[in-house]
Design a protein that fits this description.
Belongs to the drug/metabolite transporter (DMT) superfamily. Small multidrug resistance (SMR) (TC 2.A.7.1) family. Gdx/SugE subfamily. The chain contains four helices and no strands. Helices cover 84% and strands 0% of the residues. The chain has one domain. The two termini are 14 Å apart. By secondary structure, the protein is an all-alpha fold.
Amino acid sequence: MAWAILFLAGLLEIGWAIGLKYTDGFTKPLPTVLTAASMVASVVLLGIAMRSLPLGTAYAIWTGIGTVGTVIFGIFLFAEPATAVRIGCIALIVAGIAGLKMTA
């Protein structure tokens, strides 16, 4: 169950990272509230997952999910570059997440 909670926390991290772009410097009320709620929920779920998962593993996987998801959404939503080097780096992060999951 902790892994599912951690995965959800990572998805919410993607949500708040993308949400920051839509807050327009926290000047738009609805995106700001949704982003803040996603931040809080993400950290709370991370804390719950850490009850039974190793700190370093849980934190690295949480940030990895957030990083990979944010880069992918940035490519599709904001036309950020999808170069071979960026895709390769994403693959390395995914490999690291998989490795940590297998060793935990």
